[in-house]
Design brief:
Layout (H helix, E strand, L loop, with lengths): L1 H6 L1 H28 L20 H25 L6 H11 L5 H9 L2 H13 L26
Helix pairs in contact: 3-4
Length: 153
C-alpha cells in the first residue's frame, strides 16, 4: 500500500487540491444559492412552469444542458464531501435542484422537510437576511391522523 502511495503521489496531490477547491467552492457557493431559493418554492404541490421553455430552442437547450451538468457536478462533489470536508448533504440537495428528472419536485420537497436539512437551509437564509423557507402542506400521519407542524426550523 505504501509503495502504491509513493508511486502515485501526483494523483494524490491532485485529489487533495481538488478536495480543497471543492471545499472552498461549496463554502462560497452553497450559501449564495440557498439564499436565492424563493421562500415559497416548496409550498405548492406542483411546480410552476420554468422560464427555460419560453426561450428560443437553441439557447434554451444549451442553458438546460449546462444547468444539468452543473447539477451533476454538485451531486458528485456532495457525495465526495460525505467522506471529505464540506457540506455534503446540502451540496447534493442543490445538485438535485439543478437536475431535471421525473419526480424531482416531490423529492426536493421531501428532502427540504428533513429537519437537519431545513435547519441548515434556514440558518443560511437567516445569515443572509432572508426569511425561512415555507415547506407547504404535510399529509396527516396515517396512524394518528394528526398533522405535523407546517414549518420546520
Amino acid at each position: 500500500m505504501i509503495d502504491w502511495i509513493r508511486s502515485h503521489d501526483i494523483v494524490l496531490w491532485w485529489l487533495a487540491l481538488g478536495s480543497a477547491l471543492t471545499f472552498i467552492g461549496t463554502l462560497v457557493l452553497v450559501p449564495i444559492l440557498v439564499v436565492r431559493i424563493p421562500q415559497d418554492y416548496f409550498v405548492s404541490r406542483k411546480r410552476s412552469r420554468s422560464t427555460w421553455r419560453s426561450m428560443h430552442p437553441v439557447p434554451g437547450l444549451a442553458l438546460l444542458v449546462a444547468k444539468n451538468v452543473c447539477g451533476l457536478v454538485l451531486i458528485l462533489a456532495g457525495v465526495a464531501m460525505l467522506v471529505l470536508p464540506g457540506q455534503g448533504m446540502l451540496t447534493i440537495v442543490l445538485g438535485i435542484m439543478l437536475l431535471n428528472f421525473p419526480g424531482k419536485y416531490r423529492l426536493e420537497r421531501r428532502v427540504a422537510r428533513m429537519r437537519p436539512v431545513a435547519r441548515s437551509i434556514n440558518w443560511m437564509r437567516a445569515r443572509g437576511g432572508h426569511p425561512p423557507l415555507k415547506v407547504g402542506y404535510v399529509r396527516p400521519h396515517r396512524s394518528t391522523g394528526q398533522k405535523p407542524p407546517r414549518s420546520v426550523s
